[in-house]
């Protein structure tokens, strides 16, 4: 969608306030009241970009919980990458996804060449933003498993070499809001933030290191849900 310059500025300002209001009045109270959240190594979270929060993915809560860790004053810098086929599937969900979450939609149908597919992410990183990215590409039903990582995280850091990538393990959120369910169940959950991952030009080695980081972070979880 193309906006004249002034209209574009007005749109961005409205979007910023809608996003802040949604997190202030809905997301943060929900996370505070319904989830007993243990955040380990929170201080490692980047305060500015270009950076990627590279987390495992098991629940729609994942994105909201990660974004809720940021103060409202920094929230405009944090943008989730989300499946276009789900978050843009009708005009109501698309409006909410764009105005309240400020998503970077990404197509999953395999029809676009890589550079076009990741163009929104490249631009966000070039704009010094922090993106929420799930290297597995989709939600998984369990968390104690072999992490099946796609190459997208590698291509993003290869294209934007100054980007810092922070591995993050989310544990228990699949119990609070399982895949396919709409009712939130109160549950204690963990967010374990790892230190920045150095880029390796060897994609196999890079993904293996990220997978190893996930396993190490998972061992630090405080909650004891059986998976």
Automatic annotation (TrEMBL):
Family matches, as InterPro entries: Plipid/glycerol_acylTrfase
Protein origin, superkingdom: Bacteria
Keyword Cell division found: no
Domain Phospholipid/glycerol acyltransferase intervals: 51-173
Cross-referenced Pfam families: Acyltransferase (PF01553)
Protein's GO biological process: phosphatidic acid biosynthetic process
Transmembrane segments: 21-40
A molecular function GO annotation: 1-acylglycerol-3-phosphate O-acyltransferase activity
Annotated pathway: Lipid metabolism
UniProt entry keywords in alphabetical sequence: Acyltransferase, Membrane, Transferase, Transmembrane, Transmembrane helix
Descriptive protein name: 1-acyl-sn-glycerol-3-phosphate acyltransferase
Organism of origin: Oceanisphaera avium
